[in-house]
Amino acid sequence: MFLQLRTEVEDALTGALAALDLPTDDLGIEEPPEDVPAVLASSVAFRLASEVGAPPPKVAADVAAEIDPDDYEYIGAVDTQGPYVNVLPSDAYFQGTLQESQAEDYGNLPAKDESVVVEHTSANPTGPVHVGRARNPIVGDAVANTLEYAGYDVERHYYVNDAGRQMAVFTWAYETFDEDDLDSEPERDRIEYDLVRYYRKGNAFLEEGPADEVEEAEAEIQAIMQGLEEGDEETFERVSTVVDQVLSGMQECLARLPAEFDRFVKETQFMFDGSTDDLVDRLKELDEAVYEEDAWQLDLSDHGIDKKMVFLRSDDTSLYTTRDLAHHEWKFENYDRAVTVLGEDHKLQADQLRTTLDLLGNDVEQLDNVIFSWVNLPGGLGMSTRAGTGVDLDDLLDEAIARARDEVETRMEDRIRDDDLSDEDVERIAHQVGIGAVRYDIVSKQPTKAITFEWDQALDFEAQSAPYVQYVHARCCGILDDAEEIPDAVDASVLTAKEAEDLLRVIARFPAVVEAAAEDLEPHTVATYTREFAETFNAFYRECPVLSEEDEDLRQARIALVGAARHTIANALAILGVAAPHSM
28, 29, 40, 380: most buried, per Cβ within 10 A? Predict the structure, then answer.
């Protein structure tokens, strides 16, 4: 109902300002502080005071006087507080909220006729996914979920780097060395942990091996790269043997989050279909194109980018950025919008790519980037795949599940529900809470801020963490299980307690939170909302008995309100990719 009320407020303010012969271009609509009973307010009087020649409180009073709440369904009253015009909700607002939020898909906005491709993660298939990159799939998946809830037609893509030097080295090493040549056993029984040993062995050999053998190896590596550039199918099959195996293992790891993809797009696609060659020809024709230091480059200094962008080597092989330009033009042709989730170390390349796409005549308004900073672990552990050091994402998730299991088992005697948890139940809850804690802790922070993952904070059942929010859903489920059924139609006007009305107000805002998060590509604002929601629900739970309420109408209304709360928090957690446990 919040979105509907906001529309009515926009119409009411526009009409009032027009009646006063005042400009309507900036209505100043905002959410008031918590201690103000209004749902929405307008600060328009500040802007118009000098034009009217009257103090803001007088302007606000004049505007409010022009609005008749009887003309609107969800506006209950309009008053002023100093320079602010405050809008209070009608009974229909609360009734509509309670009714609308009984739907399991509450918070999903109407479908838009707009397709969006969200590319995220896209880690090079050289080995296990490491913790340092964990923020990409977690934030990327949440961005995609947010857009999907907002009504967009979303596809999740993983862009596979299968044509660079790293993959040529990996392919050569895989074909050159045997199991007996490797220095260690796989760290985990999964294919990428097995094969990464060849990659590490190859890199070590190229650094430390006999000069003549290294020279021979480098020639083979160059031949692999050249073969891909020329569209040689046999070379592609050789590389794909490695890429596809490693990628399958990485997918298993990412599925644990879960972060799954609709499509894996290989960069070789844009080499083999001729689009990279065509792009290179067009780049050479740009005024910014220069041939320096044995390579074709773009001088983008006139566009605010000092570092030149190399797009073709002297041996006529393209670079990752060149192929990514072709990749983005393909996105523009097939989707209405393209969103890319990138680490802060790729910001320069993102700026170069966007500027170049613009120079090539593309509508770069179709492109949005979400830039994130790094996730650190206490102690500053390294994250180098090549050196074989660092912390794998699998290890972090295993640790999270183990810690969550310990926490759940510790709390078994304090549970308020009288159902018995089996070992399977404990394991399920441990997975939901443990992995949920990792995801929530990471996605709840503004992406541009570096974060240090702390176990005590992430798994604190009492603080504003994932378990704290998940427990609200479990509590709702417990109440509804005991209630046996949720009434179809109830009278929201009996929910007169402040805590019940506050909960209805927060529930009403959820679709607007989804809309704003999608518009700004900021899923962390949904996490902020879940914390506010949890606080509000817990206040309701403390002060408003549900099943023990003797007044039948009030009891039924409170049961319906708990049902609405369950749908709201479940869907908010779903946007964040966090499980909503039925019991904890």
Answer: 40
Q: Is the N-terminal amide bond of 258 cis, ω within 30° of 0?
A: yes
Give the pair of three-digit tokens for residue 420. Answer: 């018995």
Taken as a whole, the chain contains a residue count of: 584
| Token pair belonging to 206 | 């190229």
CB 10 within 8 A of CB 25: no
Collapse the DSSP code of 369 into the 3-class scheme (helix H, G, I; strand E, B; otherwise coil) and give the result: strand
Q: What are the φ/ψ torsions at residue 507 (nearest 5 degrees)?
A: -60, -40
pTM of the predicted structure, to 2 decimals: 0.92
Q: What is the pLDDT of residues 252-300, one digit of tens each?
A: 999 999 999 999 999 999 999 999 999 999 999 999 999 999 999 999 9
Task: Determine phi and psi for 129, rounding to 5 degrees.
Answer: -70, 130
Query: What secondary structure does DSSP assign to 197-251, as a single string?
Result: HHHHHHHHHHHHS-HHHHHHHHHHHHHHHHHHHTT-HHHHHHHHHHHHHHHHHHH
Question: Residues 337, 116: contact at Cβ < 8 Å?
Answer: yes
Distance CA 528, CA 284 (A): 48
CA distances from 551 to 10, 486, 494, 554 (A): 39, 16, 10, 5
Are 559 and 92 in contact by the 8 Å Cβ rule? The answer is no
Question: Which burial class, exposed, middle or buried, applies to 222 when counting CB atoms under 10 A from its CB (0-12, 13-18, 19+)?
Answer: middle
Selection from 299, 292, 298 nearest residue 314 by Cα: 292
- Other CB atoms within 10 Å distance of the CB of residue 358: 14
Between CA 582 and CA 478 the distance in angstroms is 8
Residue 236 φ then ψ, to 5°:
-60, -40
Q: Which residues contact 475 (CB under 8 A, 6 or more apart)?
A: 537, 541
Element of type H or E holding 352: helix 347-359
| Rg of the Cα atoms in the chain | 29
Cα angle, residue 261 at apex, residues 259 and 263 outer, rounded to 5°: 165
